[in-house]
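Worked example

This section walks through a single chain of length 179. The input is the sequence exactly as stored; nothing has been trimmed or padded.
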Amino acid sequence: SVPLEKVGEWLAVEHPLLFARLDCDAVVTGRADSLHVTADLTGRGNDDIERRIELTGARLGSRLKLDRFRYVAEPSRLELSGEVDFSSPPSIEGVAVFRDLEPAVLLADPDLVVVGDLNGAVRFAGVGLTRATFRGNVDVHIDGATAFGLPFGAGTLSGTLDRGMLDVDRARFTVGGSE
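Given that input, the structure is written out below as C-alpha cells.
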C-alpha cells in the first residue's frame, strides 16, 4: 500500500482528498497490461466538504483511456473524458465539462475564491501530467461565470499552457452585455 499523501507528492498535487479518509469501491478486471477499471471514491478533507470521484476507464499498454471521470464537490460538477499516454514524455488529451464550478472548493485553493459559478467546457492536449509539468494547447468555452462578484456572460479563450503559465492567443468575453 502507498499513502495517499505520497501519491500527491509524486504528482506535485496538494488536495484535501489526499489528506483525508477516503472510501473506495473499485472493480478491476483484466491483465496487468490490459485492465478495465470502474471506481467510486468519496472523502472529506479538513474543510468538511464531501468530494466524490466516479471513474470508468481502461488501460492498454502505456495508454489509459478515461471513458468517464466525474468529480463532485457540491455545488461543483466536473466531467472529464480523454486519454493519457504514460510513455516518454507522458501526454494527455481530453475534454472537461463543468457545471456550477467553484474552483476554490473543487481544487481546494482559497486563492481561487474570486471566480465562481463557472459553466462551460475545456479541450486540452499536450505533454506532462501535472499543472507544474504540462505544456500544451487549451481551448475554453464559458457559458457563464462570476469573477470578483461580477457576472460574466459567454466567452472563449484559446492559448498555450507552459508549466502553469497561460499564454493567451485569443480571448473574447461578455460582461453585462458588453464585450
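What to look for: The radius of gyration is 17 Å.
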